[in-house]
Amino acid sequence: MDPEFSESSEERLHDEDEHEEKFHLFGRQKPVHTALGGGKPADVILWRNKQISAALLAGSTVIWLLFEWIGYHLIPFICHSLILSLASLFLWSNLSSFVNKSPINFPEIELPEDVCTSVALLLTDRCNKSIGVFWQVASGKDLKKFLTKHEDQVDTYAQKAKAKLKRQYSQLDEKVLQKLPKVPFITDSKQH
Q1: Alpha-carbon span 64 to 54, nearest angstrom
Q2: Of 26, 53, 58, 65, which has fewest CB within 10 angstroms of its CB?
Q3: Which residue has the higher pLDDT, 112 or 144?
């Protein structure tokens, strides 16, 4: 028997193989579930909770159809959703006495005064600083100095951002938007 491949050297090779890390795609160190933060959000993203994942996919598809194809806008959508939820809660609370069910118990929300005061002061300070910066930029005091001082860096970042946005839009256009059927959803009532 070859002295290099004695039984003890074979055992060492086997032990080394056991201690080597498992190969992960893209050089990950952790499982995908752990890399996504674990818990319920990772379960939804990885489709481990199929009902919630399907509901989120269906809901986002409906919202995309409303906004993109039908031409619905965000503010009316929010207002109509709030009106619908308010009307359903009103009906539930009033009709619950007729069907002998208990009405919905809404919890009392009480915010401490010191928390509200500190948030208001913080927002006031941030708004004042933002208005000051906008005033300096609008009056031409700060923007020109900033652009001339960092002109090369601003141009480089703007060029990189523009190229990246063009590349991402072309991929989106090629893979998704070109494959959508061209169907007009909004009809003009004046043509009839």
Answers
A1: 15
A2: 26
A3: 112
